[in-house]
Write a structure and sequence with these properties.
There is one protein chain. The protein has four helices and no strands. By secondary structure, the chain is mainly α. It folds into two domains: 3-44; 50-105, no CATH class. α1 (3-12) crosses α2. The radius of gyration is 20 Å and the shape is elongated. The two termini are 32 Å apart. The model has no long low-confidence stretch (mean pLDDT 80).
């Protein structure tokens, strides 16, 4: 979805927040476009925008060949583990642990 698509969408839909004394229509339109850009960035650049939980940062930065990621139920172990694999095979590891081309995990 492009920025122009988002502007068209903003024109043809009733926003949940309507202009009022605290916010005018131009400001509202700017906010809608800003949020739309963020959504588009998340769809196309999700790995680059990943902000891991603080306790997982050490896992990502560790250069050991074998690492363990453990924690309690619902503590995002699978998510962060798969993010590490995805960064490795796409050459997007910010710590430079893997080759940029023909990545391996």
């Amino acid at each position: 979805m492009s920025v122009s698509d988002l502007k068209d969408l903003a024109k043809h839909t009733t926003p949940a927040i309507t202009p009022g004394p605290d916010i005018d229509a131009a400001t509202l339109a700017q906010q809608i476009v800003r949020v739309g850009r963020q959504v588009l960035a998340f769809r196309t650049e999700a790995l680059r925008m990943l902000r891991p939980l603080p306790h997982v940062e050490e896992f990502f930065s560790c250069e050991k060949q074998i690492r363990l990621l453990f924690g309690s139920n619902q503590s995002a172990k699978t998510f962060h583990g798969l993010a590490e694999v995805a960064r490795a095979v796409t050459g997007q590891d910010p710590f430079g642990k893997y080759p940029k081309n023909n990545g391996r995990a």
